[in-house]
Design a protein that fits this description.
With about 90 residues, the chain is mostly helical. Helix content is about 55%, strand content about 0%. The longest helix is centred in the first third of the chain and has 10 residues.
Amino acid sequence: MHQLVAKDLSADDLVAFRIHGVSPEFVKEMKNEGYSNISAEQLVAMRIHGVNAAYVKELREHGYKNPSIDDLIEMRVHGFPRRASM
């Protein structure tokens, strides 16, 4: 993880990663989508709110090319894109 994340990670960061499922694979997937230099706090927030590579791809299909990490989290929190209700 130290090689994948931009800054030095504390023990607390590593514990939070373990609790919330921030894995090396997750970080690599996000890097493959064009997101690097993601802070430990942002990685945890992304996992908590369900922001992942599939969500980024879905947003791109809706015309959002490169939203910031904070925008990704905010859009997910607010339920964008809206799902059709049954």
